[in-house]
Amino acid sequence: MDFGKREFELLNKINFIRTCGTEEEKQVAQILANEARAIGTEPTIETFDVDRWDIKKVALVSDGKEWEVTGYGMSGSTPEEGITAPFAYVQDATDMDLVNAKGKIVLINGRITDQVYPKLIKAGVLGFITFQGNIVDKREETDLDTRNLRDWAIKEGKIPGVNMRAMDAIELVRSNPATITLTLVQEEGLATSQNVIAELPGSDAKGETIVFGAHYDSVPFSHGVYDNGAGSVIIMELLRYFKAHPAKRNLRFCWFGSEERGLLGSKAYVATHKDELKDVALMVNVDVAGPVLGRDIAMVTADDGLRIAVDYLAKEVGFPLTSKQDIYSSDSIPFADNGVPGINFCRFGAPGGANIHCRHDVIDALAPENLEETSKFILAFAERMANSVVFPVPHTIPQNIVEKVDTYLKKDKKEKK
Prior knowledge:
alpha/beta, 14-stranded mixed sheet
């Protein structure tokens, strides 16, 4: 049986929704651990805490009309009866938009960002509304996101918030209600997520370790086969290969939980294993793969020589690949933040050829042949790294990558290195 067929079989086993901190996420962690055990390793499961919320009541009402909304987790609660306040559409939440926003419930364009949220706090708004999608969407064919405030926002303070569809937002603004009532009652606490880890000792390691990573969780409504069941099954196949063909260097395979909630699994891993990171020579991350319509890319968070080497290798073996020195929003980021060079392998879907973060991330868009082609190139790269006489990648992070990582992680001046 070849790579692709095995990968597709495992992908089908985890082909269900598995969000952060849920029993379904735990179920997939156990499936992956069992697969790693069947290969002949002794995997461990490391648990960590994640924010949890249970929304008891959420509503948005204006002029007697109730709008369909979801509540923002970890954004606090209103009184049981809600809060009634003047309504304002503050567009992009610029300083001019927010001049008279104090004491109002405001609708903003787009998502909550680290530029927008502090302005809402400073402006003294009582509640916020975001919207998603397109005004031409069909309600029955789309799902309404369940969103939450991240740690960087919570540090600023909590404002109760809800999310609605663009088709409803346009009608809300047109109706121009004098007041609006927002109700959000939730219980906030902690849940447990987990990382699955399998190790293969090297024959001549000299203390050097290569970490292979992929996240296995999904977002609500999504089966997450493209993002990122595909990466999870690819590194499982790499584990199988290197178990049968031992490498010189130590190899560690990590399946991270809760990536979709802000890289929580990889953040927990680097915090737990901080003393070991000096010996991690490279982090190889795989996130999104397998679409029939797409293109392969390598994003390098390391010395630019690695990008050049990957580009040369692709030409040598005849594998179409674009390489770039840049950060990628995935589990290599916490490693780069701790000085570990990395590379992200991805097969991006062509426009209209694959979907992420929605109900349309389904296995029909993927094929075993595409998983196999990507896997074999990553293996060709990994073999060279794992068995090189002298490890070729400098154990440093270029300053341009450091700056991008700091910006991505929304660090303030005190946190920047």
